[in-house]
Amino acid sequence: MAVLVTGAAGFIGAHVAGALAARGETVIGIDDLNGYYAPQLKRDRLAALVGGRDVRFVQADFADAAALDAAVAGERIDRIVHLGAQAGVRHSLENPQAYVRANLVGHANVLELARARRAAHLVYASSSSVYGGNTALPFRVDDRVDHPVSLYAATKKADELMSESYAHLFRLPQTGLRFFTVYGPWGRPDMAPWLFTAAILAGRPITVFNNGRMRRDFTYIDDVVAGVLAALDRPPADDGASKPGGSLAPHALYNLGNSRAEPLDRLIALIEQACGRAAVREPLPMQPGDVTETYADIAESTRDLGFAPRTRLEDGVPRFVEWFRRYADA
Predict the structure, then answer these.
(1) Which range of residues forms the domain containing residue 302?
(2) Nearest-angstrom CA–CA distance, 126 and 116
(3) One of 99, 152, 220, 254 is an active-site residue; which one?
(4) How high does pLDDT run on average in the chain?
């Protein structure tokens, strides 16, 4: 039996696919290698993180139901880790249709595949963005999340609702993971650690929104991968008991964060230190769809999944910068 990983060439997906294969799982990875950012980075991730391991990669678009079915035809799949999505809050202002297609149609296609294959467990990526403009900190999985401030956030909340309906109607065991600002080697080039590091090393100004008055719960990739695998190994029971997030069906929601709200200035200072040079800052106003602070309550994740993030920002940032230098020089 195999584990299907969608978004297998993405940042989290490639790390998860490699980790599953490393522990002896048979993995089928799919990704459409789209051009939201450089497809070469995605190919390089596949080569570095899943190359040589028991992973069969298929280039396919899971938002195309026929293509998804063809990608897994003849394969025995018992679990699915659905990490593929159109990511990025700001890009959703410019290209909303991409989010509707990948995050809504694509999520529905994966649900249908899981139902048809009678999957033992579907773990899927949600996001801290679903908390929107919540001011009560830290963010708890049973908080109301009815006021998204971006289309990206709205699609992720919609994914949770679609999953709840499938858990209720078809008793499909599912776990949704709300990721908090994941960073580390092989990260995404549209996120702050990459953008700041690239600019500082090149002597270009860095764009600092809201004059830097922002805080993020930065979570290192190794900790997130451990959380994903722990969730996959613990499908929620169909026992009628209330799960994290409030479902009475076999559907649980968890935060995966470092449970520390770090000032943006601290991230910049650590990158400056690792790069050995100071940043030139270009302050700009707050961007539409963004929030000033994220902070995860991980009590349920720790209790149910044994989730225990270990990587401090002062340890993770130098690791990322070291990797970035090697990759940029390769």
Answers:
(1) 2-182+218-259+295-310
(2) 22
(3) 152
(4) 95
Count up the domains in the chain and report the number. Answer: 1
Q: Find tokens 């950012």 and name the residue.
A: 37
Distance CA 145, CA 129 (A): 9
3-class state of residue 317 by DSSP: helix
Q: Is 33 within the bounds of a domain? A: yes
Residues of the chain with pLDDT under 50: none
- Predicted TM-score of the model (pTM): 0.96
Measured distance CA(52)–CA(280) in Å, rounded: 42
End-to-end CA distance of the chain: 37
CA distance 45 to 10: 8
Predicted pLDDT at 255: 98
Strand partners, 262: 216
* CA–CA dist 94, 112 (Å, integer): 29
Q: Find where tokens 């190994």 sit.
A: 233
What pLDDT sits at residue 289? 67
Instruction: Please tell me the predicted confidence (pLDDT) of residue 67.
Output: 97
Q: Cis peptide leading into 235, omega within 30 of 0?
A: no
Residue 166 designated active-site: no
The CATH code of the domain that includes 29 is 3.40.50.720
Phi-psi region of 131 (alpha: psi -120 to 50; beta: other; left: phi over 0): alpha
Strand, coil or helix: what is 44? helix
Q: Which two tokens stand for residue 208?
A: 């600092």
